[in-house]
Amino acid sequence: MTMTPFTDAQLRASFVNTSQRERAGIVLPGLDALRWTDLDYLGWRDRKQPQLGYVVADVDGSPVGVLLRQAEASTRSRPQCSWCDDVTLPNDVVFFGAKRGGRAGRNGDTVGALVCDEFQCSGNVRKLPPLAYPGFDREAARLKRIEALRSHVRAFALTIRDSA
């Protein structure tokens, strides 16, 4: 299953933890240049405000968008991404926090996650894992990682949305 290609209007309307003003100010990525078949979620950083990130998950064919804010503090040790679970750490992982949707978010309730800094998770899970033991089915492991990533991002998006 691949991610559904969404339009600018669908993506902008999908954000569940933003005000109308914040939603209008989101600079969307170039959607025509995206390879939707290689994405398990859409994630990008704001070019004007690099501490902000945006994630859109495909939840049953509908987009659920979340505005994330990178924490200013850094971790003491090199963390593992909680979405792609990549143990080879090909990129930096940072802590992002997100306001919950609706009243909970307006009251300051937040959720956080350690995530690849430029949202490279879809690429990370598509690499064949190393051979763990003779007879290890690397392709089955890769497909399992792709499915786990989709599940993790979907659960995160629903945690934000369903608190509204």
Structure description:
This protein has one domain (8-161). It has five helices and five strands, in the order H-H-E-E-E-E-H-E-H-H. It has helices at 8-14, 20-24, 102-106, 121-126, 138-161; strands at 42-45, 52-59, 62-70, 93-99, 110-116. The longest helix is centred in the C-terminal third of the chain and has 24 residues, at 138-161. It starts with 7 loop residues before the first helix and ends with a helix. The mean pLDDT is 92.
Describe, in short, the structure shown.
With 164 residues, the protein is α+β, with helices and mostly antiparallel strands. The protein contains 5 helices and 5 strands; from the N terminus they run H-H-E-E-E-E-H-E-H-H.
Structurally, how many domains make up the residues? Answer: 1
Radius of gyration: 16 Å
How many beta-strand segments? 5
The DSSP helix count reads 5
* Mean pLDDT over all positions: 92
Strand order of the largest sheet: 1-2-3-4-5
**Fraction in helix:** 25-40%
Order of secondary-structure elements: HHEEEEHEHH
**Spatial shape:** globular
Quaternary form = single chain
Biggest beta sheet attributes: 5 strands, antiparallel
The low-confidence runs, each spanning 5 or more residues with pLDDT under 50, are none
Helix- and strand-based class?
Answer: alpha+beta
Strand content: 15-25%
What separation lies between the terminal Cα atoms?
28 Å
